[in-house]
Amino acid sequence: MIEARGLNLTFHTNDGPVHALKDVDLTIGKGEFVSFIGPSGCGKTTLLRAIADLEHPTGGSLTVNGMSPEAARKARAYGYVFQAAGLYPWRTIEGNVRLPLQIMGYSRAEQAERARKVLELVELSGFERKFPWQLSGGMQQRASIARALAFDADILLMDEPFGALDEIVRDRLNEELLKLWARTGKTIGFVTHSIPEAVYLSTKIVVMSPRPGRITDVIDSTLPAERPLEIRDTPEFIAIAHRVREGLRAGYEDS
Question: What are the TM regions of this chain, as residue ranges (predicted)?
């Protein structure tokens, strides 16, 4: 679904070039849940934004669903969930979810049906007429996920969507996201700073180094598909988390 080969990305600033990504090689298969983890400024979000055609590589190659990122964006091959929910306060929750569908020219009946389905999927049925300010932070992020799912793209890109939430809410949304992924079969790219979150959610964990962002390890998870929160106390979970920490440490040593 996503393939990068020798990917480089350099920003040109008044203070000189900033090398955000260097020689990134990565393959993400259909239906995988892939987390990107690394220190602040390591290029995690830049890589996600390059996949979404929001940043433009300066070297190497990148394909998304078999096409260029620009073609994938125009084909609406992905939905994108930002760190902040980004809901319009003057629109209802249903109105926010329907917005991309309106822009894409779906009929009112199709908008209503798709909004109903995705709000049910994220357990927000009954909140269609509420406004964002009437919902908790966790509910707002679920509405943001529903909006990204509304046009049924194959790929869901998520940039630290739960980073600003407290640990209890974050745990619950992690559980819900796994259930959502199991029901939809989407390919998910997920940026996080949390090692437990990355290990709990992912089928594959991509560990990145400090800038310039390089991949120091790619870990294929051996955890079962069914993952109660208690799995975080198992030796298998702890071993994967240890390997992530080792990859992060190696990235610092090599930088």
Answer: none
Q: State which fold the 2-77+153-254 domain adopts.
A: Rossmann fold (3.40.50)
Note the pLDDT tens digit of each residue in 168-213: 888 989 999 999 999 999 999 999 999 999 999 999 999 999 988 9
- What are 121-167's pLDDT values in tens digits? 899 999 999 999 999 999 999 999 999 999 889 999 999 999 878 88
Q: So where are the chain's domains?
A: 2-77+153-254, 87-152
pTM to 2 decimal places: 0.92
Tell me: the pLDDT tens digits for 6-29? Answer: 999 999 888 888 899 999 999 999
3-state secondary structure the chain: CEEEEEEEEEEEECCEEEEEEEEEEEEECCCCEEEEECCCCCCHHHHHHHHCCCCCCCEEEEEECCECHHHHHHCCCEEEECCCCCCCCCCCHHHHHHHHHHHCCCCHHHHHHHHHHHHHHCCCCCCCCCCHHHCCHHHHHHHHHHHHHCCCCCEEEEECCCCCCCHHHHHHHHHHHHHHHHHHCCEEEEEECCHHHHHHHCCEEEEECCCCECEEEEEECCCCCCCCHHHHHCHHHHHHHHHHHHHHHHHHHHC
Instruction: Name residue, tokens 């610092």.
Output: 252
Residue 1 CA to residue 16 CA, distance in Å, equals 34
| CB proximity list for 126: less than 8 A, separation 6 or greater | none
State the pLDDT at residue 255.
Answer: 55
Q: How many CB atoms lie within 10 A of CB 217?
A: 17
